[in-house]
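Researcher: Quick sanity check before group meeting.
Model: Go ahead. Protein one:
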Amino acid sequence: MRLAAKPSALALLFLCVALSFSCVCSAESKTKSELDQNQSQDLRPLDINTFHSLNRVGAPVISPDRKRALFATSYYSHDVNRPTTYLSLIDIASGNITQLTENKPGTVSSNPLWFDDDTFGFLRKGALYKQDLDPAASPNIVFSPPVPISNVAYRAGDELISFVASVYPNATLEESAALKRTEELRKDTAQVYDNLWARHWNEWMTLEKPNVFVAPLIRSEKTWRVGKEINLMSALPNMSDPLTRWSVDDYAISPLGDRVAFVVRAPNSNMAYSTKVDVYLASTQDYCRPRHLTARINGTASMPTFSSDGRRLAWLQMETPGYESDRNRVYLYTMATRESVAVAYDWDLSPQSLSWSKDDKVIYALTPNRGRNLIHSIEVGTGKRKELTTCGSAGGVRPIDEKSLLYVYSSENQSGDIHKLDTADCKPIRLTNVNKEKLENVFLSPAEDFWFGGAQGDRVHGWMLRPFGFDSRKSYPMALLIHGGPHQASTQCFSHAQWNPNMYASAGFVTVVINFHGSSSYGQNFTDSIQHRWGDYPYVDLMRGIDYVTTKYKFVDKSRMVALGGSYGGYMVNWLNGHTDIFKCLVAHDGKFSTVSGFYGTDELWFPERDLGKPWEETGRAILEQNNPERFAANFNTPTLFVHGEKDFRIPITESLGAWMMLRRRDIPARLVYFPDEDHWINHGGNSIRWYTEVLDWITRWTNTTSPYAIR
């Protein structure tokens, strides 16, 4: 199970996708009259408040009898300014849904799991609860640990729970809680570092690190309790090193509970510039030193997944050292022979998660493919692959039996819902509709795919959304959304974050998304192509894409275009500001202004070292300067809104602060929106509302656009 506390480069994973029995991946087949929205008087735009009230559905957790599933529903509670999450039960055959836990604003019940067919468990405030399936039942606490736990799993065979907890070196849960209290009584607040990774993502490194534990669950007719915990990582070498230590990323427990596979980055002085992440296999029976399965591979491993019989382990493996966007390959380890092999090794796509069929003959791989997150099946014996879904985006894949699975599906104009898929005929059936009332009569524009000739003569993919109230006889401003990474890709999903294209379409903009060179899901060569060329091929693709769109779609007003991007997208916004004046305004979220200062300030050095170079070396310095937006600061003339979080250690606040300061010093209109409590993303609902308010107000004002609803 992937740990949610530290989002990774692949993350992410927003829930994306949702149709019933068939899906249409493009709106290009629609007639002109169907696409004109000016007759749709009953529709209302997707406004900021409606968007932030929407429900998000979690991945299903299937019952032991395979007939039912638990799932979480989350939403932002405006009145208490906190998220709310409650659990429900769905009958897979009938689709009947029963709410199980309270839906009280600000209460979060997460991590659903099954103890048996009649009892389920969940986490609340870091403690483990159990509850009968009866909707009238009340929860009972099973384990109230001295430190919060997460990522809990249960295996009935050994009556064992597994979980993750952050602890001090060689300390139990109790000892760690005591050390934490002692730490809080210190008379100074200094933190001292001699090795790299003083900070990562949004936290300064401390002695507490997440470790994997197992503990017996002791059940009686009247009471349940958890016995003494065992740290499965305690036997690793250098476990007590206070400077770096081991930190778990992913873990999985076998169906029988006899083994745990976990993914860790070994403590070393090169942790900030090495992408070596390993898989270890530990026994829950004898607690001896875990077996190192990836000692001879120097890339990143992730997503360990046991077969249904527990005899094999699959995981995703990158092989290129120092490259975080290398292709993920599927590796299989057999317990009996202790041998590892790769399956479908020549596949040019990069899976992001794996799950086994119930008969262990097939692995389902959730894989980005042409701007969509699709489910593929891989025959374990032959490596033969089959595309099971063709449009939108899938997530949370959970096999039911040999012939069917559950998953979460969404698309640009469908919010995420649980679906059932027959793997033989590939026909999905929609089981939930968690936003039926909230999205009733709300305008959601479908994505219209297009392809054009980009840099190097390669075909480049993009899509367009028409605005609210669209009338082909009128002209509209255009918003270009630029994804981050750069080795990620925009996907046709329903994002609950800051870059949902329909939020811009509902504000009155033709909204355009382009997966430029460097994007994933179009083959590894396409992803690799922008090494040393951050400001080259992607810029060419975006400019040619704009030419294509404005030529094909006559309703786009070329004089009222804006560009917005986050992370690498923010870098590209700064690059655009130094190279073109075709935009009325720009928005840069957590974007890099200087490739040189950005190198020295980031947390993960392997990324800029591989993609650009080291600034203290002559060749690296030349490449960094060649791709440096700051070098063209004298050309910046477009009004720009900068947004940044103080806790962003991937791209520090000084990058946006510097670009904003430069524009204001030159009397060019610019605005800085600063969030002292946010990181590389906007995580809090109230802040997200403010983010959209500032951004949509900025782009409508500079394009002289009247939004279909009042933004402020």
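Researcher: Fine. The other one?
Model: Protein two, sequence then structure:
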Amino acid sequence: MKVVPLGAGQDVGRSCVLVTLGGKTVMFDCGMHMGYNDERRFPDFNYITTTGDFTSRIDAVVITHFHLDHCGALPHFTEQRGYHGPIYMTPPTKAICPILLEDYRKITVERKGETGFFTSQHIKDCMKKVVPLHLHETVWVDDELELRAYYAGHVLGAAMVYARCGNESVVYTGDYNMTPDRHLGAAWIEKVRPDVVITETTYGTTIRDSKRARERDFLEKVHSCVLRGGKVLIPCFALGRAQELCILIETYWERMGLKVPVYFSAGLTEKANRYYKLFINWTNQKIKESFVDRNPFDFKYIKPWNRDYVDLPGPMVLFATPGMLHIGTSLEVFKKWAPDERNMLIMPGYCVAGTVGAKVLSGMKVVDIDQYTQVNVNIDVQNLSFSAHADAKGIMELIRQASPRNVVLVHGEKSRMTYLKSKIMGEFGCPCYHPANGELLEIETSQDIKALMSDQLFQESWAKEQQRRQELQADGQVAEPITQLPVRGVLLLGDGGKRLPRLLDPSEFDLDQVPVVSGPNDNAPTGGDQQAPAGAIAESPAAMDESGTASDTVVFSTRKVFDEAAVAKRMGLDASADLSHAILAAISELLTIDSAQQVRDSKGADRSQTIEVGNSIKISAQPTDNDSLPALLVSWAWEEEELATQVLVIINRVLG
């Protein structure tokens, strides 16, 4: 498997990861970098090809959520660079993505005057290529490549994506949150055991304190600022943190009876709230339940913002987009309010290096907004993490849930990745990588084989494991719960079709009794002293062709040991009865009733009885001596494995 980050490799922003699995190539996310205003804002698509033929090289593009650092380059890639293949995203992401793209386009082109940027028509044409990807739904891109989405929390519609092609599989997390908040649930994924998990590491070295303590601290700081007559600016993205903090402020204002005005950026957040109402089933259970009585996103105390309010006297609270102070309303208001020490700036999320938000958080007291504008920062700056990214504990929990063979770290700073890498390798014992942008990572993958395990092998393996646990406990050691069961058996591979491989106890597949035979066209010697190798070919009377020549087949045999006294009592037989004959008669009767196959009884020269079913299945009583338990011997050819399974079920019913 090949993994190449075109963005977010040892960096945050411009997420774009190419994965080649089973001969298919998938692009996970196609974002832009908020710290750049030139061609560096987009991933380096020339890495894929310089001819512009992206459609033949990429089988699918998957967008995990609507944040611009994950979808911002999509119209550029499809409409300006020429990719015409399928794009997959969840329905909420498909609905909200064009709103954010159009808003960013307006700011970039109409306010800043940039040229060569994608247009409104480009965004519309790009969205026409989108195929909806619903949670837990398996979507086939073609006959070989499958995709499945899992709930990621983070923002409305965010998804982790499992992709599989042939024997190779990958989980790409995008951004996710393992902690439920006031309006979204926690991320979750099945134990899919992929070859690779590609996970974000934005907060890879952080372990957050109590969410309730953070909320209390946030509300106390806001309240203290407005009490002293100051203004509070809270930069946040239009979806996710805005709704989370608005619900928090709304509840607090109602409880405290406060009259101080609270605003949010008009237009974009109003549209966002509309989609939260539309996709209410993507929220958490509390929001769904309260939605029956009233819509929790219809805020009573929070009103739309007007640009004329920025110079009004008196205290106020403003939620303004975007969250990193790099453009838009939040930056315009920051320039006005930053010089006043009575005011407060609360940064609730992560800021990419190079943005005004990152400069302010680093402690700079004079910030260059652009080449013409400089701002004195006297405002009280507070960094309270309400980010919807997983912290170090959450990342480790996600890896534990998915159980991958390899882990690849993206969307984080290199120093944090290095620390987290050592933790992952130490705790899970699996290889961990953190490639840079443009660095090709080739990962060796192994093949899982699903096999049907015989009852006998499972029971013996389980008994050995229980004995091992008892020995540990006898030595005063703690025995961990059984999550994996080591087995040692004979694996017989299937035919690649419906017939699954079987894992048998060695006693069920006696290689010493399986001679090699030659097919009609073989020239192999037929000496009687020839030894049978593993996976040998057996001769069966049922496998004779019309000329009497043995064709190639494999025969299984198993012993079904039983308790004579218990079976005789259940069948109502006395001590003088022929128990073996009675058991075989009962089996023959049930097979005649339950099976559509012909059932034949035969007797040998030694008066031994054998039941034959189909072309190869034979059931006979095994001769016993003083040292062995009574048993039935059952054998069947590989071709009649399914019928043999039905026969064994009937035998188990008779033997109890």
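Researcher: One line on it for the slide.
Model: Residues 91-111 form the longest helix (21 residues).
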